[in-house]
Amino acid sequence: MSMPVIGVTASRDDRGTLSVGKEYLESVLKAGGLPLIVPYVEDAESIRRIAERIDGLLLTGGGDIDPAWFGEEPIPGLGWIDPKRDHLEICLVRRMLEENKPILAICRGCQILNVAAGGDMFQDLYGQREGLLQHQQKAPRFHLSHSVEVAEGSLLHRIAGSSAIKVNSFHHQAVRKVAPGFIACATAKDGVIEGVESVRHPFVLGVQWHPEHLSATDDVSRRLFEAFVRAASSD
């Protein structure tokens, strides 16, 4: 059986150079998938063709998201945004949802998935919420920083095999209103949403943490990539 092709989104600097952390690519490869970095395109036809060619979509972490996508003005705590990345990823997510293809969305990807499907987000947690845990850990990226409660019966629960896990944490934005047709499948002790998933698709899942930095040592993170690639293989 051929390896499923996994489209992997990339960050872009102000010179137009694309970059993807090697951990994303290695995690997909170890799970049996073939990662393909998604080029920056803007026209609908190119986005449609990308969605047709890939078997699954991995939305990676990165900069902030333009609040215009959910009808808000920027607040002082909003960081660097890349409008072209937002446009590409939102259009590609919507196309993948239409085609019922698997999506695994990580950190920023979790937020962009929710916004693309009709939800919204906190532009800056620490400016908009009180009583928070530390969501930007001061520890190595492989460190399991805080605990997360996983909703029983969810796709994430079936993958994790537990209703309580520990995760790493590197974010200041987060899902606020969950998109229609989605549920919050993971929550931190302070109430911040740490995972969302579709109830209308077999495998559309976003997590707020970074499992790619944990997949070599953490069983839940490894199983997350394996389940994603397996879903892409069956399409």
From TrEMBL:
Pfam families in the record: Peptidase_C26
One GO term of the biological process aspect: polyamine catabolic process
Ranges in coiled-coil conformation: none
Residues spanning the signal sequence: none
Keyword terms: Glutamine amidotransferase, Transferase
GO MF annotations in UniProt: gamma-glutamyl-gamma-aminobutyrate hydrolase activity; transferase activity
Gene3D superfamilies listed in its UniProt record: 3.40.50.880
Gene Ontology annotations for the cellular component aspect, listed alphabetically: cytosol
Keyword Transmembrane carried by entry: no
SUPFAM superfamilies in UniProt: Class I glutamine amidotransferase-like
Keyword Transport belongs to the record: no
Xref: InterPro entries: Class_I_gatase-like, Peptidase_C26, PuuD-like
Protein name, per record: Putative glutamine amidotransferase
Source organism (scientific name): Planifilum fimeticola
High-level lineage: Bacteria, Bacillati, Bacillota, Bacilli, Bacillales
